[in-house]
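User: What would this chain look like folded?
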Amino acid sequence: MKRLPIGITTLQSIKKDNCYYVDKTHFVKKLVDNGKYFFLSRPRRFGKSLFVDTLKQAFLGNKQLFEGLYLENNWDWSVKYPVLHIDFGGGTVRDPQDLKNWIIKQLKRHILTYNISVEDTDSVRFMFTDIIYSLYESYKNPVVVLVDEYDKPILDNIENTEKAIEIREILKDFYSVLKASDLYLKFVFLTGVSRFSKVSIFSGLNQLNDITLDSAFATICGYTQSELETVFKDRLEGVNLEELKYWYNGYNWLGE
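Assistant: Here's the prediction, encoded as C-alpha cells.
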C-alpha cells in the first residue's frame, strides 16, 4: 500500500514518499487556458496548499514530478517561468510590524533563490514591485505569483478590530502591486479561507476571477466519491462506505 498523504503540502514529498495522489493536474491547464488572475476559497485541510505547490512545480518546469499524471503530456515543458510563492500559513502574525517582517523575509528568500538585485529592501510594496520587474528582466519571461492563505494575517487578529484593520491595509497595499505589474505577470493565483468579495483587501485588484463557486472548478480540491473509491481502493477493504459518507460526505461548491 502507498502512504496516506496526511499533512503533506508539496508534490515533491508526495512523489518521494510514495503517497496516494488524486490527480488534479488537469485543473492547472484549465486555469491557464481560461485566464490569468484567479482566487479560490476553501476550508482548511482541503489541499489548497498542495494545489498551489502543484501550480508552482508546473510553471518551474519540473516535469519529473508529473510522470503518470494528466499534465505530463498536456503542458509545454520547454518554457519555464520564475515563480514568486508567498505563504502566510506558517506561524501567527502578531501585529503589523510582524507582518511586514514576514513578507520581507519571504521576498528576500526569492532574491537569494533567483540571484537578483533589488534596491529597496525596506518597503513591502516597492520591494515586491522591484522583484517582479527584476525577475521579468532577468529571465525574459513573465512572472507567476502564488499566494497561499492570503487572509490568515487578518484572521490571526480578527478579535482585535483595530489591529486587524491595520494588517488589512498592509496586505491591501501589498496586493495592489499585482494590478500595476500586469505587463510582467504570466499568472496569479491566491487562496484563502474567506472570500475576497467580503473584504475590501482586493479593491485595487478587481480583475481577479473568483472560482470559489464556479461549477467548472467545484472539485479542484478535496476528493469526489469516484476518486475516493478508485485512488484509495486498497485502503477501503472492509470499510462501510455508507458510514464513511455519514461522517465525511456532503461538501460541494455548486458542482459534484
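The mean pLDDT is 91. If you want, I can go into more detail on any region.
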